[in-house]
Design a protein that fits this description.
Elements: H1 4-30, E1 47-48, E2 50-52, E3 61-69, E4 80-84, E5 98-102, E6 105-107, E7 109-115, E8 120-125, E9 135-143, E10 149-158, E11 167-176
Parallel strand pairs: 1-11
Antiparallel strand pairs: 2-3, 3-9, 4-8, 4-10, 5-6, 5-9, 7-8, 10-11
């Protein structure tokens, strides 16, 4: 009835359409998760994962950023976390709504300082976070910048007993759409 070339074209068209339809749910599931950076990204071993719980839309208020640090990066105990962000990030943080989670359990925070002039959040847990522990820093009640973009949030730490010099752990490449 149909020639082989017509059958191949029809089959190819159906396959492409099926892939497009099957890929749509994956796009909506991936919102709020780190994407793929092809050029200008952070070295693979320095890239930290994150999740934006409420979609990561530009100008949104009440966003939650879950910034993750894997256990393998936590080679020493940590007495202070410092999260620096670029000067062109025009979002707002709520220092009273920051939670530190270690091994999926909330840890008491002694103090949070938001240094707006130097573009850094400093988080001081009551007790040092043990080495080898997976950590999540929840920044809640965040107001995203009005204009989207890609923002490099750097994580630095100070260990107990260390000279008070920040040690680089990695970078979260956060994309706001």
């Amino acid at each position: 009835m149909f020639s082989n070339s017509v059958k191949r074209r029809i089959l190819s068209g159906v396959a492409i359409a099926g892939c497009l339809v099957a890929g749509l749910p994956l796009v909506s599931l991936a919102q709020g998760l780190p994407g793929l950076t092809i050029f200008g990204g952070v070295k693979g071993e320095d890239n930290l994962s994150y999740r934006l719980d409420f979609g990561g839309s530009a100008g949104a208020w009440g966003e939650r950023y879950r910034l993750r640090i894997p256990a393998k990066k936590m080679k020493l105990a940590v007495a202070q976390f410092a999260i620096s962000y670029p000067d062109y990030y025009k979002g707002e943080f709520d220092p009273k709504s920051i939670e530190l989670r270690v091994k999926d359990k909330s840890v008491k925070i002694q103090e949070v300082k938001w240094n707006k002039e130097n573009f850094v959040l400093e988080i001081f847990p009551e007790e040092p976070v043990p080495a080898g522990s997976p950590v999540e820093i929840w920044l809640e009640n965040v107001r995203n910048p009005r204009f989207g973009g890609m923002f490099y949030f750097n994580c630095q730490v100070i260990s107990p007993g260390d000279a008070p010099l920040l040690r680089y752990l990695g970078t979260w490449v956060i994309q706001i759409t």
